[in-house]
Each structure stands twice: as C-alpha cells, then as structure tokens.
Amino acid sequence: MGDDTYVGEAAHIRGEKPTAARYDASMTDDERDNVRNLIYLCTDHHTIIDKVEADWTTSTLQELKDNHEKHVHQAMEEAFADVAFPELQNAVSWVAKQAPATNGSFDLMELSR
Description:
mainly alpha; two-stranded antiparallel sheet; 2 strands; extended
C-alpha cells in the first residue's frame, strides 16, 4: 500500500548500543532486547527520552512501564469480570475462522480510513 502509519516504536529502557542513552555494559544482548527492557512509545517520545537522558532515567522509564502495565492489567480484569465461558468460546471460534493477513499484520480486519 505504501501509506502505512507508524504510531509507536519499541524503545530500549537501557540502551541498545554503547553510545545509546542509559546503556548498561553489564547486560547481555539478549537482556537488552528482552521485552522486560523495552517500552512502547510514540515516535516523538522515543526521540525525547534518548535526547534528554537526564530527565528519563532507567528507573523513571521502568516505573512508567510498570504503572502502565498494572493499569492495563486492572482494566482487563474489570472488562472480563462478566465474561463467561460461552462468550470466550464464541470469540475463540470466530478468531480461528479468520483468514491470516497477507501483509503480516496482526489485525483481524482492515480498518476503514
């Protein structure tokens, strides 16, 4: 299509390379690229956290990530509190019948623009 829009990027909490913000030489490459060391941000904020490193410490970013994950976890628990097995069975059955996306997308349906 050529008109894809990127709304976010995976950013490293502890930098990926020796010249990167918050680089930790004691980490292995696998640890650096592990989901525990990544935070998903919009492209603008990804740039900001790397350029203004003093304002965006490892502990600050980790706290932001932890708080967001707790908030999402709580929201999901509340949203699914009234979902019973029949509803889950219907949802799983519907998803299983969907054709895989040809573009590698995880979307279940194309969104209208």
